[in-house]
């Protein structure tokens, strides 16, 4: 962000420029003529002096006089016979959008607040009409590390979440506090040091696709006090995605001139499997609208954990864990980086996402646990499954986004 002193200097400069323009074209022409005349006279006097001192230097004198004439007639630096017209409102050009990842762009900031809304209106695979909205608020501070995510569901989106409407996660002072979206109760556990500032626990990259190329306005625009380049695009500009069948799309994105991070995005798509997976029945076919906006950039604020979250039972010790079921979690033979605490087990594996899905479906089925597949969220990049038995539940979260090609698995138990 620009400091006040820079803004004052900019205003002062613009004021002087306006005063100079107020002199009028005639005064400006007189000034140019005076400068050219003075330059010519100086060089001609130098030529005469050389001729007096060196009678045989006629050739030199002629060359110097010719140089004086060329200087007097030369246009101003950068000037052309037909000056290029200034950019006007509405003009655009095709330009690449050099932001391939919102996560990477956000990681360059010191703090931010963002809001993302997804609205869907269409039909499920059986033809049943469906609609709903997901709103996600995020705020993050780099030093000391702190973050907060609030996700709110409405309409059929809430029904697909088992009737849940609000889900929140806080990470402050090395502790993550997570709210159960169904019961509203809280639990806490160590945040660890693997959470990236730009990615957080839920990433905007999981929901937003940026175009590869788009039409960029020639004049910048201010959005939330930030100078941005405005781009417009269609489905032709979006990166190919075999998971989605996009019939049509239109969108706008505003990219910060300084920092190259998306400040605002509006995207509306029509097609099938817009949730990125055929298993996401809620997004089966229809229209999906995505709106993303940075509300705050590099501003000072604090993130405060609610008292009910601080006082909740901790799954790594402290609080009341008496209701947490003691379950022996099966793991594949190649499990590495295993970490276990009351109610949660994590590990990495070289097995594929589908291998892990099949592994836990078979293992938990053999142990008498049931899985309602209609509530699964699964695609080739990962997924989430829930198993229930005797009033207890187990959630399995599988993620293949690791840079080293391994798959990470988190198994959480509760009731």
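Q: What amino acid sequence fits the structure above?
A:
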């Amino acid at each position: 962000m620009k400091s006040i002193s820079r803004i004052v200097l900019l205003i002062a400069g613009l004021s002087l420029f306006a005063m100079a323009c107020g002199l009028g074209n005639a005064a400006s022409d007189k000034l140019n003529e005076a400068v050219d005349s003075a330059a010519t006279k100086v060089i001609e006097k130098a030529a005469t002096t050389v001729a007096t001192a060196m009678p045989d230097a006629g050739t030199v004198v002629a060359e110097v006089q010719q140089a004086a004439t060329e200087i007097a007639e030369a246009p101003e630096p950068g000037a052309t016979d037909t000056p290029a017209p200034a950019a006007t409102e509405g003009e655009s050009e095709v330009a690449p959008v050099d932001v391939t990842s919102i996560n990477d762009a956000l990681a360059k900031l010191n703090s931010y607040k963002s809001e993302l809304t997804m609205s869907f209106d269409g039909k499920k695979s059986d033809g049943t009409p469906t609609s709903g909205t997901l709103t996600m608020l995020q705020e993050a501070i780099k030093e000391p590390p702190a973050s907060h995510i609030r996700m709110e569901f409405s309409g059929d989106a809430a029904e697909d979440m088992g009737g849940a409407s609000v889900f929140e996660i806080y990470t402050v002072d090395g502790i993550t506090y997570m709210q159960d979206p169904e019961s509203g109760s809280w639990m806490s556990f160590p945040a660890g040091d693997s959470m990236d500032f730009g990615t957080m626990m839920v990433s905007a990259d999981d929901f937003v696709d940026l175009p590869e190329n788009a039409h960029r306005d020639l004049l910048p625009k201010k959005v939330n006090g930030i100078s941005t380049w405005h781009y417009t695009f269609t489905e032709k500009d979006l990166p190919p995605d075999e998971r989605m069948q996009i019939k049509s799309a239109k969108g706008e994105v505003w990219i910060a001139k300084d920092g190259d991070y998306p400040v605002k995005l509006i995207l509306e798509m029509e097609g099938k499997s817009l949730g990125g997976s055929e298993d996401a029945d809620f997004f089966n076919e229809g229209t999906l609208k995505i709106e993303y906006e940075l509300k705050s950039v590099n501003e000072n604020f604090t993130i405060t954990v609610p008292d009910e979250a601080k006082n909740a039972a901790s799954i790594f010790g402290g609080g009341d864990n008496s209701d947490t079921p003691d379950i022996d979690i099966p793991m594949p033979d190649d499990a590495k980086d295993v970490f276990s605490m009351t109610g949660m087990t994590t590990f990495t594996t070289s097995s594929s996402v589908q291998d892990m899905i099949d592994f836990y479906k078979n293992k938990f089925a053999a142990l008498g646990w049931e899985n309602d597949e209609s509530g699964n969220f699964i695609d080739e990049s990962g997924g989430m499954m829930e198993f229930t038995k005797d009033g207890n539940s187990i959630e399995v979260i599988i993620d293949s986004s690791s840079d080293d090609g391994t798959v990470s698995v988190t198994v959480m138990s509760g009731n």
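Q: And what stands out in the fold?
A: The two ends are 48 Å apart (CA to CA).
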